[in-house]
Amino acid sequence: MSILLLGGSPHIPSSSSRLLQHIGDQLALHGHSYSKLDVRDLPARALLQADYADAQIADAVRAVAEADAILIATPIYKASYTGLLKAFLDLLPQDGLAGKLVLPLATGGGHAHTLALDYALRPVLHALGAKQVFTSIYANAQQLDWHDERGLTLDAPIAARVQAGIAEVSTGLFILQGARRPAAANGDATVDNAPAPARSLQQQPYTPSLQTA
Question: Is the sign of the CA dihedral 24, 72, 119, 144 positive or negative?
Fold first, then answer.
């Protein structure tokens, strides 16, 4: 089972990228492998013009398609996630997150942006067909401490939320793995690998109940 760390910050290093890496490293200790994609590394013109013929854009979209779980991290600007991340999510097909586990992460300057993930990003993830969107994790600058030698230190409340998120993702991946083994053992690859039907916003309109899913 594979994990994609998707970074939406225009700056590297950043608080959100450090939190994303920290959680990825912790999941690796639970036996999961991961790869990382920073949207800022993609060619700007191809990203903004949705140029699917560009090799880097095609590879990035393929990385999302091949991942079982995606951790998405973004700083909060103007009470929302970054335009950089929005541009990338717009490249994905309507069902681009179908069957995937997603953990949204964000960092910001204060508690005023705590709900930005739930009101801005979560509806988009559901519209893209995510199988499960776990409880969002938001940390402000005072809750994250970076040291060049010791790395990232989290204060107690955020550390507890991070551990809960890690447990949710890890458990979800093991459940997915267990659900897929019988089909593989029986040689029935068509059931597990069959593409999910595309869904539109008309077929799956956003409702407030999705915020707590």
Answer: positive
Q: Do 34 and 4 meet the contact criterion of CB atoms below 8 Å apart?
A: yes
Q: For residues 132 and 168, is the Cβ–Cβ distance under 8 A?
A: no
Residue (of 41, 29, 38, 36) closest to 3 by Cα position: 36
> Coil, strand or helix: which one is 101?
strand
Scanning the structure block, which residue is given the tokens 């008309």? 202
Q: Are strands 144-147 and 151-154 parallel, antiparallel or unpaired?
A: antiparallel
Phi first, then psi: give them for residue 94, nearest 5 degrees. Answer: -55, -35
For 129-187, how does the pLDDT look when each residue is reduced to its tens digit (9 = 90+)?
Answer: 999 999 999 999 889 999 887 889 999 999 999 999 999 999 999 999 888 765 544 54
SS3 track for 119-151: HHHHHHHHHCCECEECCCEEEEHHHEEEECCCE
At 27 the three-state DSSP class reads: helix
Q: What CA–CA distances, in Å, run from 81 to 51, 96, 115? A: 22, 19, 11
Render the burial of 192-205: b for 16+ CB within 10 Å, e for the rest.
eeeeeeeeeeeeee
pTM: 0.83
